[in-house]
Amino acid sequence: MHKTRPMVAVVDDDPRLLDSLEELLESAGYTACCFGSASGLLDHGLSNLDLLITDIGMPGINGFELRDRVKSACPELPVFLTTGRHEIADQGGAQGVNGFFRKPFDAPDLLVAVCKALRKSRDRG
Question: Which residues contact residue 101 at a Cβ distance below 8 angstroms, ignoring those fewer than 6 apart?
Fold first, then answer.
């Protein structure tokens, strides 16, 4: 069975951001599944995901750690990092990710990047 809507996971400890991203992704034709923490996502499992958007600065497992865990479990899964802390953005910590967005990010830019990353991973698959 082929699912028609790509599944995008969003991990962020800011509930307002989760809501707005969920709305944005759903309106663009994706299925969004939102988690308030990295462990929430890991408990849920990665099997149905097509793309991950995660905040970097979170309590517990941060976005870099989550990316590393996800990449070892699902090397093909595109991962986007977001942060409101600009110093992190400048540390070159964005290596090994498909997209990097500073908050507040531009919704159309994010959707274009998501679309491109999904197309790329589909072409590989």
Answer: 80, 81, 82, 83, 109, 110, 113
